[in-house]
Amino acid sequence: MPRMADDFDEFSFLPAQAADVGVDAPLPRGERVSLTLPDGRTLSALRYVPAGTEDPPVVTFLHGAGLNAHTWDTTILALGLPALAIDLAGHGDSSWREDAAYLARVLAPDVIAALETWTDRPQVLVGQSLGALVAAAVAASAPERVRDLVMIDITPGIDQSAGPSQIRAFFAGPTDWASREELVEKALAFGLGGSRDAATRGVYLNSRVRDDGRVEWKHHFAHLAAAAANAPETEGGTDDELTAVLSETGWDDLDAVSAPITLIRGDHGYVTDADAGEFARRVPAASLYVVPTGHNVQEEIPADLGRLLSGIAG
């Protein structure tokens, strides 16, 4: 993939992504939309409208910690339905929170405001990792906005000794770099991003060049993880934001959800068999799917995920 300027068209990757997964239908129209929240912060999102239509979204997507709305691009291409993908606070083009509170129940009101503004019907609300916990909080507090809840590779109370620790390790360390190429190499070294082209695309869509020429992640989590890694340990251990998002309140939210619930997990993702068993015990009416992938299902098997979601949305 050639080196790109910082002002590249953020939807310019769609033709290549469609070709990668064999989608030969006309590409949807992608557009960035933004909303000013009551406290003055900006919430940003991507809206995808199928070619030849002006249909409003029927599926809304919420990404995981450290990602952004573009993580869903290829899945949305395979889905073939009008969709909305939101940049959660502190990620993508949405404002960072001054209080650094990125808990599901804190982020949920932003998403509800987005649904009230950009959708006209109850959504199939799809969340991955942190986004799934936020989606559960939204479904619990605004049931009229959610037709179905789909959670991808996370459960409340997930075992943090394995997968989530990789997130902390990846983002801990320097908070800026000399070039995006350094970030691409780091992502590949951690086994993230898949191919070099995919990793390069992900880095360009998830980073920015500052006025001083240094490159930094767009999301706030990298700064929080780096600060936590350098903080002195206390007797009870480090209680950083990446740990806090996995609190018991997630189970309370799921108890309050009236919409149908689906859990999709990777067979080598972050949700263990024990985690899945606890989920099935606590949410017995939920549908469970195991797919051959890791944690970032939407990036590793996007076409398969798109087809699965199409069946749910249909």
From TrEMBL:
Q: Which GO terms describe its molecular function?
A: hydrolase activity
Q: Where is the AB hydrolase-1 domain?
A: 61-302
Q: Which Pfam families match?
A: Abhydrolase_6
Which keywords does the record carry? Hydrolase
- Superkingdom of origin: Bacteria
Read off the InterPro entries from this record: AB_hydrolase_1 (IPR000073), AB_hydrolase_fold (IPR029058), AB_hydrolase_sf (IPR050266)
Q: Which PANTHER family match?
A: HYDROLASE, PUTATIVE (AFU_ORTHOLOGUE AFUA_2G14860)-RELATED, MONOACYLGLYCEROL LIPASE
Q: In its UniProt entry, what is this protein called?
A: Alpha/beta hydrolase
Origin species, per record, is Microbacterium rhizosphaerae
